[in-house]
Amino acid sequence: MQFGVIGCGTVAQIMHIPYLAELPKAALYALVDPAEDRADELADRYNVPHVYTSHDSLLEERGDELDAVIVLTPAQTHANVVVDTLAAGVHTLVEKPLAATLEDATAMVEAAETSDATAMVAYMKRYDPSYERAREQIDGLDAIDLVTAYDVDPDHFRIIDEVYDLVGGTPPADLVEESVAKRRADIEQAIGTDDNLLVDAYDFQLDHLCHDVSALRGLFGEVERIAHVDIFAGGRYASAHLVYEDGVRCVLETGNSDRKWFEEFIRVDGPDGMVKVDFSNPFIKNTPTELRVKRGIEELLDTVYTPSYDESFKRELQYFIRCVEGDAEVRTTFAEAREDLRVIIDLFRTYRGEHPRADREEP
Fold it and tell me: Which of 23, 224, 236, 301 yields a CA-CA distance of 20 to 30 A from 197?
């Protein structure tokens, strides 16, 4: 299966390109990046035959030869790329978040619905072995009293610079300026304000929080109500109380820090036990996510599972290929990802005193 990689930045270089080079059913056929120097160097490193500076050129010259693409450009540019790849009948895996605005997300959902190509969102945590195993452990609880989701980022680039030899690049200045301006405009439109603190907070949480929202959706279904939201510490941190299907309560804590350790977990407490998925640093390959289960009232059974050292990014790519081949159903759909984006937007609008979930007309 011949793949094009559109966007050759950090996550492309650490995860997607190396794993595509490993997978027997995948072939790196083309790289696309506006920083042509970066794409050329990576093409030499991985023996990729074709390099382009835009997805338009790729589709025009190689569209008939491409089987699939991975779209790894910034979220505000996804719709521009994805609508075209799906219209060309190219199977498309797009990095999270799907978009910065619901309008762009809807354009991609509609493109997916009218295309015969596979469309999938790259929520790699949903393919983590410990996360997948957590479902059966949670189902084994008598009931769910409380869900706690905690996710605070470190300075990822301080860690990345110690571990990987990434290729830099020099994209055209006007293109960067245009992309930054679009992201700012998209954010203001999405959350309904140009307040700098909230714009900066959404700018971070858009890329950060979507993982947690998706992971919680996979375990507990739809958010039915947002009971409380607070944004504090200069916009770097946020907390929220969410109510999921069947009245499941979730306390969500999320933030951005300069520290050097990563911490993200989902903990589920019940009357007779506890299940905790403790995610590992997503940028350090093959560090396993830990699944801890405690049960008992009179006696304690405390078990820690490490189901696999397999990398969730690699498993995600393998699953996407299975979907393309017709051997699996897409688990992380564009439609779900749009609803994840809606949750994030609603968190900010709730903080601003709106009641978006109560006000929204349901289909």
Answer: 224
